[in-house]
């Protein structure tokens, strides 16, 4: 019988994990009023605590960082107390959990902003997709271009959020630098046309991501910090004229921090044959540049995940939808059990249905 390589423990100076499974960050929009986590969220994460590492759904670092309804925050005392329910429940089952720190940037709307103001972004460039608000889908608005003071204040928001996460009992944090949100907006040419130290050249476009990471590392220690990136991503209209140069520079700078991990998202497209070879598979391209733990995610099944580990493309593999409908995904893998299909209709919002009521093997 062949070795179940995803079930092999993973140990480094930063990690001691029972297996190679990571539960990917998954927005579920089930926070209570005030963007406060609650007991149902605690049950949901506890059910999946057999994963080697859980990364929570994206959690906004400030009211300004909000872009969706009913997503959790990590900036208020009430939210910290709510997250304590989650971390305690996961730790009671011997799990490890990181909080994903999130600022959506321009992907918001005045109807979602606490003060009714414009969302923040690197530049006054409107997004390409409608924004879902309490009043339904609305046309995107031209964002407010952040001043240097506002950039510095936002970096401090990341720091406070990281400190709040540690107070809430998290084992660490993941900085959300992917998928067309604020950090990714600074990296890309279609969202950043600044002519100061945060725009223009590759080092300037990467400056915000690097300063956020540096500040969070200084606040809570590098062993408790990871970052997620999408080098081939085009979410919400972000495009990069030189993705290879940009992300080579950025990843080399980030790896120098000796982070807990770097988390890369693979492109998931119906057809990628017209893309440059680099964009078709980003993890093996960047692997030689990354000395710390490398997590890969997006589109993996058990076979492709095993191959990624066996060929040393990655150290850990993150699964998303499979964990939604299979809380005991690790056991199902180890026993070759059938997987439960997921229900897309219950991904976002609602209560226990499609959230905590998926079956276990036993």
Question: What can you see in these coordinates?
Answer:
The protein is an alpha/beta fold and 362 residues long. The protein has one domain: Aldolase class I (TIM Barrel). Helices cover 31% and strands 15% of the residues. It is built from eleven helices and 14 strands. The protein has an eight-stranded parallel beta barrel, surrounded by five helices. Helix 1 (39-47) runs parallel beside helix 2, helix 3 (148-167) packs parallel to helix 5 and helix 5 runs parallel beside helix 6.
Q: How many individual domains?
A: 1
Q: Please indicate the percent range of residues in DSSP E strands (runs of 2 or more).
A: 15-25%
Main β-sheet, in a few words? Answer: 8 strands, parallel, barrel
Topology as a string of helices (H) and strands (E) = EEEHEHEEEEEHEHHEHEHHEHEHH
Distinctive features:
single chain, alpha/beta, two-stranded antiparallel ribbon, globular
Quickly describe the structure.
The chain is of the alpha/beta class. The chain contains eleven helices and 14 strands.
Task: Please give the structural blueprint.
Blueprint: E1 10-11, E2 16-17, E3 21-23, H1 39-47, E4 53-60, H2 77-92, E5 97-102, E6 120-121, E7 131-133, E8 136-138, E9 144-145, H3 148-167, E10 172-176, H4 182-187, H5 202-220, E11 225-229, H6 243-255, E12 261-265, H7 277-280, H8 282-286, E13 293-297, H9 302-310, E14 316-319, H10 321-325, H11 329-335
Parallel strand pairs: 3-4, 3-14, 4-5, 5-10, 6-9, 10-11, 11-12, 12-13, 13-14
Antiparallel strand pairs: 1-2, 7-8
Helix pairs in contact: 1-2, 3-5, 5-6
């Amino acid at each position: 019988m062949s070795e179940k390589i995803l079930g092999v423990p993973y140990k480094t100076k930063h990690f001691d994990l029972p297996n190679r499974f990571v539960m990917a960050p998954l927005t579920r929009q089930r926070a209570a009023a005030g963007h406060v986590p609650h007991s149902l969220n605690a049950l949901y994460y506890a059910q999946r605590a057999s994963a080697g590492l859980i990364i929570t759904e994206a959690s906004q670092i400030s009211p300004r960082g909000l872009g969706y309804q009913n997503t959790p925050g990590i900036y208020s005392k009430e939210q910290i107390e709510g997250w304590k329910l989650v971390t305690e429940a996961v730790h009671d089952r011997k799990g490890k959990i990181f909080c994903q720190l999130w600022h959506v940037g321009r992907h918001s709307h005045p109807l979602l902003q606490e003060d009714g103001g414009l969302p923040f972004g690197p530049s006054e460039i409107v997004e390409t997709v409608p924004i879902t608000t309490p009043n339904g889908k609305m046309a995107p608005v031209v964002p407010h271009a952040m001043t240097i003071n506002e950039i510095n204040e936002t970096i401090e928001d990341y720091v406070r959020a990281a400190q709040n996460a540690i107070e809430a009992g998290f084992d660490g944090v993941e900085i959300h630098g992917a998928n067309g949100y604020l950090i990714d907006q600074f990296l890309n040419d279609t969202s950043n046309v600044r002519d100061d130290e945060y725009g223009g050249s590759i080092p300037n476009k990467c400056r915000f991501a690097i300063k956020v990471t540096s500040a969070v590392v200084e606040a809570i220690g590098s062993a408790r910090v990871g970052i997620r990136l999408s080098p081939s991503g085009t979410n919400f209209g972000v495009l990069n004229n030189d993705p290879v140069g940009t992300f080579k520079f950025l990843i080399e700078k980030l790896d120098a921090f000796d982070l807990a991990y770097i988390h890369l998202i693979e492109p998931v497209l119906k057809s990628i044959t017209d893309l440059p070879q680099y964009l078709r598979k980003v993890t093996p391209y960047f692997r030689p540049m990354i000395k710390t733990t490398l997590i890969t995610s997006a589109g993996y099944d058990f076979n492709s995940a095993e191959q990624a580990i066996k060929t040393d493309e990655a150290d850990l593999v993150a699964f998303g939808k499979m964990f939604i409908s299979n809380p005991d995904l690790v056991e199902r893998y180890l026993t070759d059990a059938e997987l439960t299909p997921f229900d897309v209709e219950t991904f976002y919002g609602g209560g226990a249905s499609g959230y905590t009521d998926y079956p276990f093997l036993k």
